[in-house]
Amino acid sequence: MDKIFRTDSFHNKDLFIVVALIFAILCIASLTFFVIGKLNPKANLTELKARTKSWWVMASIFIAATLINSTISYVAMAMLSFVAFRELYSVIGFRDSDRRAIFWAFIAIPVQYYLAYIGWYGAYIIFIPVVMFLFLPLRIVLKGDTKGIIKSMATLQWTLMLTVFGISHMAYLLSLHPIKGFDIGGRGLLLFLVFLTEINDVMQFTWGKLLGRHKIIPKISPNKTWEGFIGGLISTTIIGHFLGFLTPLSTVQVLFVSFMIGFSGFVGDIVMSSVKRDIGVKDMGTTIPGHGGILDRIDSLAYTAPVFFHLVYYLAY
């Protein structure tokens, strides 16, 4: 069993507390919505129940990544990127002549995660932004179809950057070298990132429902309000402060990083909302019943993961 589960995780008090806290919050939320639904059958809880169901799925995936063998964790996160990439490219509408380039974009996924797995930072950080940026247009050009070629080049690279490069930063967190006095390591950082990203989504949604009056970008996301955005930022920053023990950062650094997670999570959400409006779809897929596809749940993480990783890497590593 030691080859599958990281038994040292169960002996880490801080890690265990956070895992227990996450599941406790989910249990309380699920029970609360169930009771409200029984007491008031007319209450509109569809959105809240759908979000809670998706949070159960995502929390289970990422908590498992902190408890199981690291190799399995990398494979699981690579699969998330694979599904997210497939969801996005399938609704964008590429040309038939782009299929070979799309094939090579898929091949880039295991390569990117292998570089994260071995901790080769120099190669990892340039593989997709530089190597694939130069290679994919060449593969598209070799088909000889120039009609719409600029759109294909730009869209394919952006899709790869969002669903693979951005998300893969979560995997690289597990490869960061140990720091003296910071025993939790990358597992704590991964939990901190995922929990704060999800709680930011919850807080912005909650404050928006409670106090939301002034729309931010009604043409893109009609439900987003300044009250929800600001309330979410403040709440996420405060919660991040109390979870600072999962990071090697100072109090001021934790507050700043937590604030940036809240801000970048909001940006990721509205960017994907604009993409959906352009394409004309409500959800990117049906992987998670009741709340769309994998990308619908990790769109914020595609933005928060690289922001969080590089801030922590600069400040602590």
Essential attributes:
317 residues; mainly alpha; disordered N terminus; 73% helix; single chain
Structure description:
There is one protein chain. The protein has 317 residues and is mainly α. It is built from 11 helices and no strands. Helix 3 packs antiparallel against helix 4 and helix 9 (251-279) packs antiparallel against helix 11 (301-316).
Briefly say what this structure is:
The protein is mostly helical. It has helices at residues 13-39, 46-67, 70-92, 99-118, 121-141, 149-173, 186-211, 226-242, 251-279, 294-298, 301-316.
What is the element layout, followed by pairings?
Blueprint: H1 13-39, H2 46-67, H3 70-92, H4 99-118, H5 121-141, H6 149-173, H7 186-211, H8 226-242, H9 251-279, H10 294-298, H11 301-316
- Proportion of residues in extended strands: under 5%
Spans where pLDDT lies below 50 across 5 or more residues? 1-5
- What portion of residues is helical? over 70%
Q: Quaternary state, please?
A: single chain
- Rounded to an integer in angstroms, the radius of gyration calculated over CA atoms is 20 Å
**Number of DSSP-assigned strands:** 0
Q: Helix/strand/pairing class, anyone?
A: mainly alpha
User: How confident is the prediction overall: mean pLDDT?
Assistant: 86
